[in-house]
Amino acid sequence: MGAEAQHCPTANGLIKTGSRALSGSYIPLDTFVLEPEEVAGLQQQCQVSVEELMQLLVQPASLLARAPTSKFPVGAIGLGVSGRLYAGVNLEFPGLPLQHSVHAEQFLIASAAWHGERGLRRIAVNAAPCGHCRQFIAELVTADTIELAYKGSTYRLDDILVDKFCPSDLIEPGTAPLLLEQQSNGVRFTPAAEELLRQCPDLQEAASQALLSAQESYTPYTRCPAGMGLITQDGSVYGGGVIESCAYNPTINPLQAACITLAAKGRGPFSEVKEAVLAELQAESVSYAETCRIALNAINPDIHLTVLHIQLK
Ligand SMILES: [Zn+2]
């Protein structure tokens, strides 16, 4: 790559890549996913490897962060085994404790899970991954092989998380699918929940999304699947399910997961949400209802939360 100014187009404008001005295509980075053919087209256009392209996209991705508290925008780009690229950014929620925040690496992993990606080969990020994210990445089915690129170097997870606490410390290897493997929690609504839904047809789509998200949620440690469906003012619905961590605290709760889906669709502020539907097991050791109620109230006090109970089939 030459020394003069070269540009590679992105949704956020032009990024300098080297020596040649590249006119042309709009890169829909604001959808937070690039299909393999788009990735190949960009590589061709910019004359870069996929690893170099990921590095080029990290900074533009960070411009999509929602970090009103820290004002520290983080952008991450992940390469899936499918050849797709996923973008992730940090999300912060004013008025809530800091642990409600979503980190960029978690965002992209949740987004990859949402798209049915079956593994990640590499993550590039514009800042060193925090300990919390290193721990979260340890859940991935590709944790042993994933490459982590930041500050000009590339590492394996074991290099930067020595003697890691990992899924096999809590569950027998092979007894549950790892993160990004197919999940099938086999849950359905209780008869009481189905009856409630018959009386509230407006919630049907969000409830379906919450149930689907619960079925696909990653809960090998508690066996407490849960999912959330959010309805925005214009009637659009966004879902997300729990992604647990063996270290518990880095766990993504269903509201965070649904907010990731909403943000990844390029939607406006979270205060656009008007209704929320949570699907979770009844009277289990883990419940998300109250913490989600508090968080939703901080996002917009007018959001109404409906909790629908689910049961194992
Ligand atoms: Zn982090």
From TrEMBL:
Metal-binding recorded as keyword: yes
Family annotation (InterPro entries): APOBEC/CMP_deaminase_Zn-bd, CMP_dCMP_dom, Cyd/dCyd_deaminase_Zn-bd, Cyt/Deoxycyt_deaminase, Cytidine_deaminase-like
Keyword Metal-binding: yes
The CMP/dCMP-type deaminase domain, residue ranges: 49-168, 201-313
UniProt keyword annotations, A-Z: Hydrolase, Metal-binding, Zinc
Oligomer status and interactors: Homodimer.
Family from the record: Belongs to the cytidine and deoxycytidylate deaminase family.
Protein name per its UniProtKB record: G5468 protein
Species per Swiss-Prot/TrEMBL record: Coccomyxa viridis
